[in-house]
UniProtKB/TrEMBL annotation:
Residues of the ABC transporter domain: 29-248
Keyword rRNA-binding: no
Classification lineage: Bacteria, Bacillati, Actinomycetota, Actinomycetes, Micrococcales
Name this protein carries in UniProt: ABC transporter ATP-binding protein
GO molecular function per UniProt: ABC-type transporter activity; ATP binding; ATP hydrolysis activity
Gene Ontology cellular component list: membrane
Species, as recorded: Agromyces atrinae
C-alpha cells in the first residue's frame, strides 16, 4: 500500500520500514555440538516483526494503530519514539515527541515523588522552570496529595503509575504516542486520562494510539492503520479500519 496522502504537513513519516528480531532457540549441549560439527548455524533465526510498513501522519491527526496480538503495534511505536532502530527504511518525526510507552521507566525508587517528577520531566526534555510551572498541575492530576514527598518505593503500583503517567502527559509536546493507557490505574483515573488525551487531540497535537479498547479508539481517532503479521494491510477511516482488523 502506498503512502497515505495527507493535506497538512507530516509530523510522522514511516518510510518502508522493516524490523527484525533475533529469535534464540534453546538446544541441548548435544544438539549444539552436532550443529557445530556439521558447521550448521544453530540457536537462532530472525523474525520479521515489521515488513515494508509505510505511512504518513499529518500534523494534528489522531491515528489508531490496530492489529491482533503480536502484529507489530508496540514495535512500530518504539521505532517512532526512537527506542528501537529500523533494520531498513526510515522514520522521521517533527517536533517534541512524548511517548506513553514505558511509563515510569525513568523513575527511581529511592527518590521522593517530587524528586522523580523533576527527574522525569528533565528526561522528557523539560527545563526546571517549565517543570516548576506545571508541578502543581502534575501532582493534582495524579491525586498523590501528601504522599508526594514520600519515597516512590513506598507507593502502591497504582499510585506509582498515576504519578508517572501524569508527568508524561503534562510535558510540552507536539506528538504523543500512546500504548495501552487503559492499563493505567483504576476506572475513574482511566476516564480522566482519556479526557486529557481528548483535550490534547483538540489542541491539535499529533497522536498515534495503540489500544484494544475500540470504543476509546473511536472517540479519539479519526483514522486507523491496521497491521497484520508485521504488514500494513489497511489505512483509512477508523470504523473501516476496525472492520478490516476483525476480518481475519
Ligand atoms: N525484543 C524482542 N525480541 C524478539 N521478539 C520480539 C521483541 N519485541 C517484540 N517481538 C516480537 O515481535 C512481534 C510483534 O510484537 P509487538 O509487541 O510489536 O506486537 P503488538 O501488536 O504490540 O502485540 P500486543 O497486541 O500483544 O501488544 C511479536 O511476535 C513479538 O514476539
Amino acid at each position: 500500500m502506498g503512502a497515505n496522502v495527507v493535506e497538512t504537513r507530516p509530523s510522522i513519516v514511516v518510510d518502508d520500514v522493516r524490523k527484525d528480531f533475533l529469535l534464540r532457540h534453546t538446544h541441548s549441549l548435544k544438539e549444539t555440538f552436532v550443529a557445530w560439527v556439521q558447521r550448521k548455524k544453530s540457536g537462532s533465526s530472525t523474525f520479521q516483526a515489521l515488513d515494508g510498513v509505510e505511512f504518513h501522519v499529518g500534523e494534528g491527526e489522531s491515528v489508531a494503530v490496530l492489529g491482533l496480538n503480536g502484529s507489530g503495534k508496540s514495535t512500530l511505536l518504539k521505532l517512532i519514539s526512537g527506542v528501537l532502530e529500523p533494520d531498513a527504511g526510515r522514520v522521521l518525526t517533527r517536533g517534541r515527541l512524548a511517548g506513553l510507552i514505558e511509563v515510569g521507566a525513568g523513575f527511581h525508587p529511592d527518590l521522593s515523588g517530587r524528586e522523580n517528577v523533576y527527574l522525569n520531566a528533565a528526561i522528557l526534555g523539560m527545563n526546571r522552570a517549565e517543570t516548576e510551572a506545571r508541578f502543581d498541575e502534575i501532582v493534582a492530576f495524579s491525586e498523590i496529595g501528601e504522599f508526594i514527598d514520600q519515597e516512590v518505593k513506598h507507593y502502591s503500583s497504582g499510585m506509582f503509575l498515576r504519578l508517572a503517567f501524569s508527568v508524561a502527559i503534562h510535558v510540552e509536546l507536539d506528538i504523543l504516542l500512546v500504548d495501552e493507557i487503559l492499563s493505567v490505574g483504576d476506572a475513574p483515573f482511566r476516564e480522566k486520562c482519556k479526557t486529557k488525551i481528548l483535550e490534547l487531540a483538540d489542541q491539535g497535537k499529533t497522536m498515534l494510539v495503540v489500544s484494544h479498547n475500540m470504543s476509546m479508539i473511536k472517540e479519539i481517532c479519526t483514522r486507523g492503520i491496521v497491521l497484520k503479521k508485521g504488514k500494513l494491510i489497511f489505512d483509512g477511516p477508523v470504523d473501516e479500519a476496525i472492520e478490516a482488523m476483525n476480518k481475519r
